[in-house]
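Review form for a predicted model. The reviewer records the input and the model, then writes brief findings.
Reviewer: anonymous (R2)
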Amino acid sequence: MAMNYKVGVEEQKPKHKMMSISSVLVFPSPFQGHVNPMAALSEKLVENGFKVIFVNTEFNHKRVVGSMVDQYDEESPLKLVSIPDGLEPNDDRSNVGKLCDSMLSTMPQALKKLIQDNDNNNNNDSRIRFIVVDLHVGWALNVACESGIKGALFWPASATAFHLLYSVPRLLHDGIIDPDGSILTSKKTIQLSPSMPEMEPRTFFWLHMAGIIDSSHYLNYLVHHCTPALNLTEWWFCDTAHELEPEVLTLLPKLIPIGPLLRIDHRSKTNNAPPRSLGQFWEEDLSCMSWLDEQAHGSVVYVAFGSFTLFDSNQFNELALGLDLSNRPFLWVIREDNKMEYPTEFKGHKGKIVSWAPQQKVLSHPAIACFVTHCGWNSTMEGLSNGVPLLCWPYYGDQLYNERHICDELKVGLGFDKDHNGLVSRKELKTKVEQIFNDEKIKSRSVALKGKVMKNVAKGGTSYENLEKFVKEIKQ
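Model under review:
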């Protein structure tokens, strides 16, 4: 199934005159935090004159299309298409291990057929001649190479997380981990390089996938089916900026920073209303923007935990009552799949609750004072790009390391301490909210870092020039 998405190129002045060129296929891993940055990258490719074919699984394609509102155009240079992931419609896609196994057995052939059908049904100008693949589905680059298509790999997390995965053979050799990824060393910290900050082995991202995928399964999937694709291309892209991770980017000169990958804000021609963002699995509730307009500048606590995090009832209750106790206006994102009931004492009269928010627009709003976040890399980049102080509440994967980086290296956020029951208490939430509201040093560092980060995507900036070089090379 193919759908065309109106990206509004005609409403902007593109950097390059639109050219009649072959298409670029963009293929993300089927998770919200992976689709988002690759959708932003696709918009940038379209802005530079390319036709883009954006591939989702059939399951996610239906969600994406369902979240859009009147933004399709048959003449659009950005086309949404889908291939099956091999699971049944009612299967649980949050079981990442099962999904990865199903993708491996089903999707390579489906992707090959998609490429063949596209090229057989289109003239030379619309044939796929380049592919950008999420490293988490790196096996797809093998399919492209077999079809004579050159490609690039994209890593949607931090450069440090990439370096950690890249270092797995050395970690095995040095006896830091065993083949299943379990920690063997008794050292509390290690250094992947003398020029890098120390890292706690307990924060290795594959060790924190409980309830999503078995850690050894996840690491083996990445090492055996994904990272070998690094040998198939010289283009390794990462959604980061030099100022955020200078040491690791110096160590890995082949890893190319092109971040922050932020969405292009296209406006409707009819009513100038902000549109829904491409690639969202849930419909964005834009009413929160008008609510923010009514709040004082720098007064609102924004609370959002991404597409995977779900709390148990005890933690949910503490969070709700903590927001009440803070006595600050808050905007809280609670997904529709959340089954928790609000505690009877929860008033929530100072807040607004939505099921999904246009996060980039929210974080750029002057009413936002701080961001209570799970520290997913997309959320981290969006927070840093808007100069918003972060209150860090990591949940799984690389989020634990991201918290340490935010708090200890960048010094633009605070973490929460858990009580003897393993909960972030309502009092702890209130304490940290007050602390970050009153910490002028964190505020000033956040604003200063925003300036440095955003220079990267301005003309002449490192990320801008890296993307420009890529665009020129694939056009040739």
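Findings: Residues 3-20, 267-273 have pLDDT under 50 and may be disordered.
Further findings: The chain has 16 helices and 14 strands.
Recommendation: see findings above.
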